[in-house]
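Quick question about two entries, pasted in order.
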Amino acid sequence: MVNEQVLLMGPRKALVGIVTPAADGAAASPDRPAVVVLNSGIIHRVGANRMTVQLCRQLSQQGVDAVRFDLSGIGDSEPRDDGLGLLEASLTDIKEALDTLESARGFKRFVLVGLCSGADHAVVYAGRDARVTGLVLLDPSIPHTPRYYLNHYARRATRLSSWMNIARGKHPLWQALGQRMGGGAHGAEPAEVDPRADLDTPQAKAFLTQAYAAAQASGNRFLVVLTAEREDQHNYREQLLDAFPDVSFGDRLQLEYWEDTDHTFTPEASRERVIGRIAQWVPAGAD
């Protein structure tokens, strides 16, 4: 039987969380971090395909305290009324949640787990709070690299449809070239738009580099899992290292690229795999 408890967090008691205590019943200890799982986008704290629930319960069985909670305005948590921007509001929510977990439950150290936007929030926050000692990042935002584009177009070149479009002058490469050389013909279809192109701006790269550097400098260990379904964002294992060459991860980084896994770990086997990997890493990787 799972012994889970509702916890209202933050000064306004407006953040709703579920605490899944360690099944061994041991009291919170400074030597044992609690795992806190963040929202992915606007998905309720149960997570995509209820993966967060399954993860917290698996961690509990291994003697790890786990917490899942909703950021302001998501799920059961009330919206903020202080006018903070989206990023700062999320980071403030995380701080308030950790403050409550420390004061009410005695936790001193934390591992943050996040998928997609949750991963980005986790790494940006980690460098601001020394209580965070470990990060599990599932498909975090990563700028494109030269090798990314080499892989991307090499794979497209193997498709018959791509060659046919090149021959007909309809391939995005032709369209982009036309725009660079004079804006293209009047009435031509616009070039393919990369939905994550903003990650490649100098400002975005500098912001993310600073976030990862701060998280690393504060002593965090990282488990990063990239899935092949996010080919628009990353398409090889070492892209994180190539995108942030000035960050010295050293042996604090465990980096994996899963070819046969979708972004939200839809098949049960995929969820079991990622939950097992996290449950294996947390005790060993967050010391």
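Here is the second entry:
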Amino acid sequence: MNIGFIGLGNMGGGMAANLVKAGHTVRAFDLAEDALARARAHGCETFATVREAVAGVDAVVSMLPNGAIVDAVYAKDVIGHAQASALLLDCSTIDVDTARKVASAAEAAGHAMVDAPVSGGIAAANGGTLTFMVGGTDAAFARAEPILAAMGKAVIHAGASGAGQAAKICNNMILGATMVATCEAFALALKLGLDPQTFYDISSKASGQSWSMTSYCPLPGVGPQSPADNDYQGGFTAALMLKDLKLALAAAASAGAQVPMGTRAEELYAAFAAAGNGGKDFSAIIKTL
């Protein structure tokens, strides 16, 4: 299959490479020349514009920073330039309203489209073990599933257009709040004289267990390898966690939902990022505790 891929950053670069490994021809675009060079090294064809990259393809995959960019790229350079039969898959994490707006415009032009945000981080993007939460029609999901499966370990149909984004926002609100709670618990355990490995061995097998603890422990040398073992470099940045928490709070306000834990997590990550830590992994918030 010929696939146009837009956005080759920390996540998109690995995703595009995995599509090549799966036997697809990938026509890639990014604004950064170093990202294009990495894509070429992984077997992608690269192009100077989005319009060139999507010309004649069977599907378009995008991984972009925010909703405004997604809206602009699809409105100006994808819809009306990719052939109408091309399936559109946006894997960015954006607000639900923009996801639905872009999908509506795509469908009006004859495209099937899904919103398919991901969970798993950079390591999973490189390793092809992402989880995709997909919004769109049953027919669009059926077409998208084999493409997404080449980049992930799980592809789950969340519902109609926008449902993938809703699932991602809710999931990452849980992640942000549980990481803060996990960091609090380890900091308290240390101050109470508990050995952190011993506390991990107990809590990871007890009711305090969570993904933040057993897959992404915020203390170096405890649990599986995580960004904490690399001075909190790599992984999922605090700035990206803050972005997702802001999306969750905006969605909650729109839906009239009460999210006190999500609200407090957003406040803590906002302060952490404002102090110059936005580029560190989000688990580095333990340093504030």
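Reply: The first strand starts at residue 2 and ends at 6. The chain has two domains: 2-159, 166-288. Hope that helps.
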